[in-house]
Design goal:
Elements (H helix, E strand, L loop, with lengths): L14 H4 L5 H6 L13 E6 L3 H12 L8 E4 L41 H15 L10 E7 L2 E6 L2 E10 L21 E4 L14 E4 L3 H12 L4 E4 L6 E2 L5 H16 L8 H4 L1 E2 L5 H5 L9 E4 L3 E4 L30 E2 L5 E4 L2 E4 L37 E3 L8 H24 L1
Parallel strand pairs: 1-2, 1-5, 5-16, 6-15, 7-8, 7-15, 9-10
Antiparallel strand pairs: 3-4, 4-5, 11-12, 12-14, 13-14
Helix pairs in contact: 3-9
């Protein structure tokens, strides 16, 4: 079935032709020498980002009659389709990933749950781009965005685009968050963030401290354990385990809670920060075994260790595990090696710190628009998309729309906002 608004294939545009590079950016990626030609005319809009939100927005722009490359362009910093999913680690299979919702007009189907989620999404997004004839321009790094003379100026490493409106759909992946702890600069071992994790085999023979209480932290612990790697979990607070059923109504309520912060101009929390983590069958055995138990908060790092406030005076104590308490078998709680510090905490030796501490909104390139509120965020209207202080700017995949379900809806709202804004301009 054709996508809404899709054109019949003209001679030379069938499957064989589509296998060939279809724009200058693709040709450059294949090492074919070309003279790069950027649009020289003023575009109706520019979509920054080709993840779930950006692709959904582009789809709805096309449904509104706009043509990719003529009326709008989609810019992607990656080398190929898949958005942030391109960078997920090897062991994150589709069956263990958070739900990936359908993009409008193309069902994802039922992929093999054992296939890496990265490969599923790369293939799905690539098919979507081709079906919708989006001709995504990549790789393009957006450096700065300004608004002058009634136009957005989008400065990139490939040149400058001009447009009457802008859809920002850059997500969070390029803005990893590592909190400051005393001693972080004195620790002599390896430190890395979720963004840089590739495979458990990279840490064989090392002792790994995982910092963070989210899904990624728990999956890293399980992944490392399969390779026989010794781990310690440190969390700022009790892991937010829940028995809540994750249905659509629940998801909408979560989005509303996150949206309250955005509409107050505060820095958005990730959706996962307020969802909790389901006590699913693939977690409870590892809670019983002691693998997924928090040993308390990280107080500080030392040259070769981590100081924690949970193991007590002899390394054997366990802080409260919240709703996971019924699954805890104390006989499986290992005593941590180490020693009591002068201030009454427990220092345990560590070779690697894996910061599974989340991401922040990737909006540094919008600094030239001067939109940051005192609370650190960008103030949005009640639709959770329209910028209050910058007419013509629409945010997709920001705050409450950071999940794939929310991002799909946000893409639609952003495209509608562009259409309404352009219609108002015509009336003036």
């Amino acid at each position: 079935m054709k996508a809404p608004g899709a054109r019949e294939a003209a001679p030379g545009q069938g499957p064989a032709a589509r296998a060939q590079p279809r724009n200058n950016f693709q040709r450059e990626a294949l090492g074919i020498s070309v003279t790069l030609v950027l649009p020289t005319h003023i575009l109706k809009t520019v979509v920054i980002g080709a993840g779930q939100a950006g692709l959904a927005a582009a789809h709805h722009l096309r449904r509104a009659g706009m043509v990719a490359g003529e009326d709008f362009v989609v810019l992607d910093s990656n080398d190929g389709p898949g958005g942030a999913w391109r960078h997920r680690w090897d062991s994150l299979t589709f069956g263990r990933a958070h739900a990936i919702h359908d993009l409008p007009g193309l069902a994802l189907g039922v992929p093999d749950p054992t296939e890496p989620a990265r490969e599923v999404v790369k293939r799905y997004y690539g098919e979507y781009e081709e079906q919708n004839e989006l001709n995504v321009l990549r790789p393009v790094q957006v450096k700065n965005v300004f608004y002058t003379g009634g136009l957005f100026k989008i400065e990139t490493n490939r040149g400058t685009f001009e447009s009457r409106t802008l859809i920002n759909a850059t997500g969070t992946w390029e803005s990893p968050y590592i909190p400051y702890y005393p001693g972080i600069n004195e620790f002599t071992g390896q430190q890395l963030h979720t963004k840089n994790y590739r495979a458990a085999s990279d840490f064989v023979g090392k002792r790994v401290l995982v910092v963070g209480g989210g899904t990624s932290a728990l999956q890293f612990l399980q992944d490392l354990n399969k390779q026989g790697i010794e781990t310690v979990l440190a969390t700022r607070r009790t892991v937010q385990w829940t028995r809540q059923s994750f249905n659509d109504e629940w998801g909408l309520n979560v989005e509303r809670e996150v949206a309250k912060r955005v509409q107050a101009g505060k820095q958005p929390l990730s959706v996962s920060a307020v969802t909790g983590i389901g006590l699913a069958h693939y977690y409870t055995p590892d809670i019983r075994s002691g693998l997924l138990l928090s040993r308390g908060n990280l107080v500080r790092l030392t040259e070769r260790g981590a100081v924690l406030n949970g193991p007590g005076s002899d390394g054997s104590e366990l802080p409260d595990q919240g709703k996971a308490n019924p699954y805890v078998h104390k006989e499986n709680v290992a005593k941590l090696p180490g020693h009591l510090t002068d201030d009454g905490f427990w220092e345990t030796p560590i070779d690697v710190v894996l910061w599974a501490t989340g991401f922040r909104a990737n909006i540094g390139h919008l600094a030239g628009l001067r939109l940051r509120e005192k609370g650190g965020g960008i103030l949005l209207g009640k639709d959770n998309s329209t910028s209050v202080r910058q007419p013509g700017l629409f945010m997709a995949g920001y705050g409450s729309s950071a999940s794939t379900l929310g991002a799909t809806r946000a893409g639609r709202r952003a495209a509608r906002g562009v259409r309404r804004h352009l219609e108002r301009e015509l009336v003036k």
